[in-house]
């Protein structure tokens, strides 16, 4: 009889469940946005590439700055409007790398988003506004010109669109759908390593959804391409915004129908079928060889944990 | 006691389940692609904006053309490599509107993709390769310049990437994730009309997933923004490639928690709570006022039908 596992309460996914109301109907109201940014309750997050500016003050730290203070730090360009937190306007500013470096001399920390999450430097509710700001500001930084005609474009709709004054094209922020899946063969599951992973870490396979395929087809294709494994049934589990740079991770469990491994070295470093009891040790950081899963902030942890706790029952469908 | 409905076998969704193997590992093999397009079994689909070139021959019609014949029609530019169908290479070509108009004088039909699906002009397995080609070729047409620096870009990877020779940026095809959801309040469901819909047609609400939100958050936000309705539980149903121009529709059922309607006239024309028995008549095209749902090729039909057949049980989760 299989072992039973229960690790207690589930930790939250990162980048979900903020208290931000996006108030998208306000984005094209120029007067509103102008007054919102001058409002005494207005605050901004400051993003510099992969890094975020924090104010040290114990844990959690503070990621919200008054608009004038943010401007005094030397933020770039115009802000993006993130929405309202209990009616208080929230914005995002970008900052050049050299300006961010100079901030490190004060009571401020400039640190990459992954470290913020892994070290738990911010309150859970502050992570999603950063994810929104980072995805939007990265998109702006890489889309200053019109893909249709090559002319410079301008930000509009409070940062939610870019307009070409030359050909008239309107460009919208991009979000790349990406499937991440745990293939299951009874009492073992398929974990893989990318060369980019920290030592000892194994995770789920993942890949971008291509034009003209369903989520389920993407799960099957990526599992076959990267590990040579065939999967049949695919069961959606949950999704997570993933601002590296601008994806949404769509997590699924999948039932293996042919289990022989054939690793594509261009895609992953290694893949193996991991017994459920061993995956439990990896989740708990108690594996004898120091192997581990991604941290609880990532949907991969949740996919693996759901399987470890419930076994192949995660593949039961309601339909 | 609620009525029971069973409409028999389910029709297939459009744009899914082709027999195409994408063979993505071949895309960067220039010699392979060069030989594949000269192979005797190579065939191409021809896309002109929203329209597709078909050869009349009863139903289903033929959408695959020999490469030399496609070129003789005056297709544009280089092809995109769609993959292999039973080892036979498949490509997609684009064609300028005026060249497509000229083809209408022969045994060929040039017709928009929606009509092809609604009229059932093609075999089910031929729809997905068209969706892939249309999404890719539309992306190429609208991304001839580098969004990062404004210089012209060139197609690479057999049409699956565009490269900038000036700043070195690599651009990948875009797929926009879009949620489409049926909100349920016991024995009634929420249907809405867009001004773009054919007369009498009502469907599910839908909208793009924004940067930094989960699928479930997007479902809740769009339902609230467009109709004023609050939903809690969200249950994934199925997904569908939607090449208008390059989306993936992610279909969900959602449980209403506050049902008062407040329609946003900028987003939709009208919304109403439709009793399950009335939705059944709309699905079957037997509604006394001529109201109807989208056709069976669309995931909206499937979302509504699943609810009509199974009732609020579609909201049961396995977790």
What features would you describe in this structure?
The structure is a homodimer of 319-residue chains. With 319 residues, the first copy, chain A, is α+β, with helices and mostly antiparallel strands. Chain A contains eight helices and 16 strands. In chain A, strands 1, 2, 3, 4, 5, 6 and 7 form a seven-stranded mixed β-sheet that branches. In chain A, a hairpin with a 4-residue loop joins β8 and β9 (161-164). The longest helix of chain A is centred in the middle third of the chain and has 19 residues, at 124-142. Chain A starts with 19 loop residues before the first strand and ends in a 9-residue tail after the last helix. The model of chain A has no long low-confidence stretch (mean pLDDT 94). At the A-B interface, α5, α6 and β14 of A face α5, α6 and β14 of B.
């Amino acid at each position: 009889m299989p072992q039973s596992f229960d690790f207690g309460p589930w930790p939250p996914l990162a980048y979900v469940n903020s208290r931000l109301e996006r108030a998208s109907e306000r984005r094209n109201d120029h007067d509103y946005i102008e007054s919102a940014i001058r409002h005494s309750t207005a605050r901004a997050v400051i993003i510099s590439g992969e890094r975020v500016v924090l104010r040290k003050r114990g844990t959690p730290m503070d990621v919200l700055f008054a608009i004038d203070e943010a401007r005094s730090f030397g933020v770039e360009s115009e802000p993006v409007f993130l929405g309202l937190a209990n009616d208080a306007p929230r914005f995002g500013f970008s900052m050049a790398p050299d300006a961010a470096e100079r901030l490190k001399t004060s009571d401020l920390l400039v640190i990459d988003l992954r470290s913020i999450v892994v070290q738990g430097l911010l309150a859970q509710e502050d992570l999603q506004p950063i994810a929104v700001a980072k995805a939007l500001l990265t998109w702006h930084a890489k889309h200053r010109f019109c893909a249709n005609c090559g002319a410079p474009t301008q930000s509009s709709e409070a940062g939610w669109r870019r307009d070409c004054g030359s050909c008239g094209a309107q460009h919208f922020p991009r979000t790349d759908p990406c499937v991440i899946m745990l293939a299951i063969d009874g009492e073992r599951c398929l974990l893989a390593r990318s060369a980019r992973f920290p030592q000892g870490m194994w995770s789920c396979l993942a890949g971008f959804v291509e034009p003209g395929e369903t989520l389920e087809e993407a799960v099957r294709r990526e599992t076959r391409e990267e590990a040579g494994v065939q999967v049949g049934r695919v069961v959606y589990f949950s999704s997570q915004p993933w601002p590296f740079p601008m994806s949404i991770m769509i997590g699924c469990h999948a039932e293996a129908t042919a289990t022989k491994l054939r690793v594509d070295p261009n895609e992953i470093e290694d893949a193996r079928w991991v017994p459920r009891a061993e995956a439990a040790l990896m989740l708990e950081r108690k594996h004898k060889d120091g192997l581990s899963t991604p941290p609880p902030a990532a949907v991969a942890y949740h996919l693996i944990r759901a399987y470890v706790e419930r076994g192949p029952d995660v593949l039961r469908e309601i339909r």
